[in-house]
Amino acid sequence: MADSDIAVGAPTDIVHFASADIDHARSVLNRFYYPIAVGVPAGSAGFGLDLRVIQLGPLTIGQLSLGAAVTLVAPELDAYHLTMPTTGRTLARHGGHEVWADPSAAAVFGPAGTVFTQHDAHSTEVDLKIERAALETELADLLGHPVPGPLELPPDLDLSTGAGLSWWRLVRLLQAELDHPETLIRKPLIADRLRHSLLTGLLLAIPHRYTEELTTPAPAGPPRAVQRVIDAIHDGPERSLSVADLAEIAGVSVRSLQEGFRRHVGQAPIAYLQSVRLSRARAMLLAADPAVVTVAAVAHRWGFAHLGRFSAVYRARFGESPSTSLRSHD
What is the pLDDT of residues 198-243, one digit of tens each? Predict the structure, then answer.
């Protein structure tokens, strides 16, 4: 018996799949992760896989629930991967290391070599696949120079304390959206920001050869670089612009741009972008005919995906609701 619910054609792909058939389960895991051999140890009974997956471009976040004890073997990874059990344990072997992953520790795999994992019966885990180029590009953008890969990551990550716990909470936030068909993660503006936050958070939470450079305060971007970004924002604030996009416009690293904005503007670049968007939205609302234009249309025109959040930040900025501004010349 198998059942699947696949959303097609959306900016973010969300899938729910359940099956008691090993071949069917293997084909779905191959689709969203890697070519994987699925095995059930002798004496195990009651195989079943329940998989919920959400894709944010180069990120695949899946919640796997397993009925029986299962072994998975991937001959070769082409991405970075973390396995994070929420119930039960997983034995992982990769790159000469053997680690146990459980609710307090993730197993971490790099883009090379065979991976073997053994999962407890009646276990549930979150599996995060990150395309190699995405993580390495994120790091290069933060540092402002090329990063020869692959990154050599440790075989496990402590999720019980410190930065690892904080990053794990962000992953769980995304995991919680798996059961909500109308999730805001379907909105490109939201998905893009969450994706960058998750990648940057991981790079800060897990040790690697660039950790010291990444955590050392960056020099502030010069005023001319900051001005280039300000000009670009005013020329098209409705565009989907991430902080990495703005840093590319400036010609400096993400960290230098953020420090330059803090020093020369007094706020972060994304906060400045939102401020300009709010001003443009207000001007449009004040000039619009309420019989023809809606608040939602104006919000979406200026890059605000969530109407309720737009209304809240608009009221905080201007002291009145967007609908009040729209009706101001009735």
Answer: 999 999 999 999 998 888 877 787 889 999 999 999 999 988 888 8
Query: Computed from CA positions of residues 286, 184, 58, 97, in that sequence, does the dihedral angle turn out positive or negative?
Result: positive
Q: Are 128 and 59 in contact (CB under 8 A)?
A: yes
Is the pLDDT assigned to residue 156 strictly greater than 60? Answer: yes
Phi first, then psi: what are they for 144, rounded to 5°? 85, 20
User: CATH for 278-326?
Assistant: 1.10.10
Angle at 244 between CA 241 and CA 246, to 5 degrees: 55
Model pLDDT, residue 182: 67
Residues of the chain with CATH 2.60.120.10: 2-205
Longest dimension (CA), the chain: 76
CATH of 217-266, one of 1.10.3470, 1.10.10, 1.25.40, 2.60.40: 1.10.10
* CB-based burial label for 176 (10 Å; 0-12, 13-18, 19+): exposed
DSSP alpha helix (H) spans, 116-268: 132-143, 162-175, 188-205, 211-215, 223-235, 243-250, 254-264
| Res 43 pLDDT > 80 | no
Average per-residue pLDDT for the chain: 87
Q: What is the CATH number of domain 2-205?
A: 2.60.120.10
pTM here?
A: 0.71
C-alpha 206, offset from chain centre? 16
Q: How many CB atoms lie within 10 A of CB 304?
A: 25
Q: Which stretch of 190-194, 231-235, 252-256, 308-312 has the lowest confidence by average pLDDT?
A: 190-194
Residues of CATH 1.10.10 domain(s) within the chain?
217-266, 278-326
Residue 181: both structure tokens together: 């068909």
